[in-house]
Amino acid sequence: MPSQTTPEPTALSDSVLCQTDRGIALLTLNRPDKLNALNYELIERLGALLDRLERDDSVRAIVLTGGGDKAFSSGADISGFATSVRQGAPAALREFVQPGQRLTARIETFPKPIIAAVNGLAYGGGSEIVEACPLAIASERAQFCKAEISLGFAPPFGGSQRLPRLIGRKRALRMILTGEPISAWKARDFGLINEVVPHERLYEEAFQLARVIAEKSPLAVAACLSSVTRGINVPIDEGLAIEANYFARMVPTRDIEEGISAWLDKRPPRFTGT
To answer: Looking at the 3D structure of the chain, how many domains does it have?
Structure first.
């Protein structure tokens, strides 16, 4: 993928664009005129693309970003969801909250690494997507904000649960209760993202990280992702049992034999995902 300010996916115009290159998929939230706000169509489209990419064995890692040069995502498209909210709690939960929670849970538990390339504002639901991604690199221009409080509700797409686990209860509550934005550097210091890079190098850095991971055993990568995600919120004894289970699953695979043999032979491993 080229190093440039804005990626140029080759897919047909849609609410989410998908482009693949040498085992890396680029997903671009494509509503730049709406700051990539999350409407029904975008949430459904992103989920469907993740389903497709999970089944595609040639894809080893995913970079997720926002279209345009201003926003990763400004959050939920309130004008679109207002009708559901005004219909009452059952409709709001069914049409607004549950699809958003399913999407962030899907991202969090996805068996291939999803790297958020945060190119601008990540507000509300946009921040919740970043929180769900296992890895995130941000442009120096990025900002993060839990804006829901200013709209009269609590974070509905998992943000009230994931953010405190990522950055700590008091830091998370400061963000959630005030709606104050934080810079990319503060997000990095808090542990919300991995690193901050110059804006013009964002995609280069994100794809470089994706390529490093893509060279590893896809089975081992999936085991690492699942082991960490499942174990992080359980007591240590349960977490160790989860870890042991995923290791046991790797023992009969060709990839573990290849990895050990390559190390003993002092050569690069050639993983096949079997």
So the answer is: 2
Helix-strand-coil split of the chain, %, nearest 5: 55, 15, 30
Report how far residue 116's alpha carbon sits from residue 138's, in angstroms, rounded to the nearest whole number.
8
Name the active-site residue from 41, 44, 108, 128: 128
Pairwise CA distance, residues 247 & 217, whole Å: 13
Would the pTM of this model clear 0.85, i.e. be above it?
yes
User: Which one of 140, 148, 180, 195 is the catalytic residue?
Assistant: 148
148 tagged catalytic: yes
Domain that holds residue 254: 218-265
Q: Quickly list DSSP for 166-209.
A: HH-HHHHHHHHHH---EEHHHHHHHTSSSEEE-GGGHHHHHHHH
The reply to whether 131 belongs to the active site is no
Q: Please say if the pLDDT value at position 225 is more than 90.
A: yes
Specify the CATH number for the domain of residue 261: 1.10.12
**Do β-strands 61-66 and 16-21 pair in parallel, antiparallel, or remain unpaired?**
unpaired
